[in-house]
Amino acid sequence: MGYYDDSESQEQYRSQKKRNPVFTFLIMIIVAVVSSAATVFFMTSDEFGLLEDKANTASSQTTTTSSLPIKNAVAVKSDTTKAVDKALESVVGIYTYQGNQLFEGTTETGAGSGVIYKKSGDYAYIVTNHHVVDGASQVEVQVSEGTRLQAKVVGSDELTDLAVLRIDGSKVNSVAELGDSSKLTLGEPAIAIGNPLGFLEGSVTEGIISSTNRTIPVDTNGDGQEDWQSEVIQTDASINPGNSGGALINIDGQVIGINSSKIAQDEVEGIGFAIPMNVAKPIIEDLEQDGKVDRPTLGVRIADLSQVNPVGRTETLKLPDSVQEGVVIIEVEGSSLAEKAGLKQYDVITKVNGDKISSDAELRRSIYESNGKKMSITYYRNGKEQTTTVSF
């Protein structure tokens, strides 16, 4: 009729499918093969660990981490720690006070460090710096166990910046071993022990010996003029405020120097100084026995030649052009050693015992080192070089 019935066509299609069993059988075989292959792949991958299982992996990682051994502490014993152990208890904190305890009371005004170098009878003796105890009305020493003891200033020396204290020895269990500073070598280890900032007792810093014999100018009275030349050990071991008077020790735990001063300029770091033990020993002995250091005097008032103008050099002093350094005698005391040696006003001293002299401080140091000895003085008078001898 020109058209067809759709329901009839669908029925005919279903009838055709039912009548094609071979096709259906092939489809079933293909599905079965694919399913079997997939099953085998997943089983094999899981068995040999080829598939990532996040839960199992996390569990495995947790187990591995928890099984690592944990060490809570490590025992360290080195030459440095042995040296510190040997010297630490002999280094003390020093605290100074000013005021009258009976009336207005005392106020803590400073802090530093010290080294117990001797124990004799009921007392223990401590070396520290002069500037640590200078001006104090009361001094206390804190020993290693934390006890504070009253201290007596036995003696003090401004030029060498050394002082000796005495305390009750019943609380002292350790005395420092003093070393030989003349045997120091450049670059060897140096360890500073002290009380930096006044409250960090027993602090330790380490460095090296930067110079075994350095000479630095010292202004003792604060007038900006050089009064003395100190022979010091230079180190880069940190020496902070409060370390003054503490110990500089070698790798054997021996005290080789008394920490004294530190260059305070902000742009300079790693430069500290200590008084060599071989320089300190005779001063300590004098202070302990006599309370002071007796030094000889030449009996002259002098000025550095560098302060004299060119006209004064040629017309008054009549110096040859070759003389550029020395000290000028401004005044000679009557009956002094200088007068007995024949020295006069306007003589220019250029050498002592053959060593050149260029400043007041150098001359004073040479005189002090000649105590009990004879000293040869080379000087110029009216343009001529002469020599005399002084016996101290």
Describe the structure.
The chain has helices spanning 6-18, 21-47, 54-66, 79-87, 130-133, 277-290, 310-316, 337-340, 360-369; strands spanning 91-100, 105-120, 123-128, 138-142, 148-157, 162-168, 189-194, 203-218, 228-235, 247-249, 255-262, 272-276, 300-304, 327-332, 348-352, 355-356, 374-381, 384-391. It is elongated, with a radius of gyration of 44 Å. It folds into 4 domains: 6-52; 79-171, Beta Barrel (Thrombin, subunit H), CATH 2.40.10; 181-290, Trypsin-like serine proteases (Thrombin, subunit H, Beta Barrel), CATH 2.40.10.10; 300-391, Pdz3 Domain, CATH 2.30.42.10. It has 9 helices and 18 strands. The model is unreliable at 1-19, 38-63 and 263-267 (pLDDT under 50). The longest helix has 27 residues, at 21-47. It has a 6-stranded antiparallel beta barrel. A 6-stranded antiparallel β-barrel has the order 7-8-9-12-11-10. It starts with 5 loop residues before the first helix and ends with a strand. The protein is of the alpha+beta class and 392 residues long.
Give a brief outline of the structure.
The chain is α+β, with helices and mostly antiparallel strands and 392 residues long. Helix content is 26%, strand content 34%. The chain has a 6-stranded antiparallel beta barrel.
CATH homologous superfamily descriptor of the largest domain: Trypsin-like serine proteases
Query: What low-confidence regions span 5 or more consecutive residues with pLDDT below 50?
Result: 1-19, 38-63, 263-267
State the total count of DSSP E strands: 18
Name of the top-level CATH class of the largest domain: Mainly Beta
End-to-end Cα distance? 158 Å
Average predicted local confidence, pLDDT: 83
Q: What kind of sheet is the major sheet?
A: 6 strands, antiparallel, barrel
What is the string of SSEs from the N terminus onward? HHHHEEEHEEEEEEEEEHEHEHEEHEE
Helical/strand content category: alpha+beta
Query: What amount of the residues lies in strands?
Result: 25-35%
Into which percent range does the helicity of residues fall? 25-40%
The number of distinct structural domains comes to 4
The helix tally amounts to 9
Strand order of the largest sheet: 1-2-3-6-5-4
The gross shape turns out to be elongated
Estimated radius of gyration: 44 Å
Named CATH topology of the largest domain? Thrombin, subunit H
CATH architecture of the largest domain: Beta Barrel
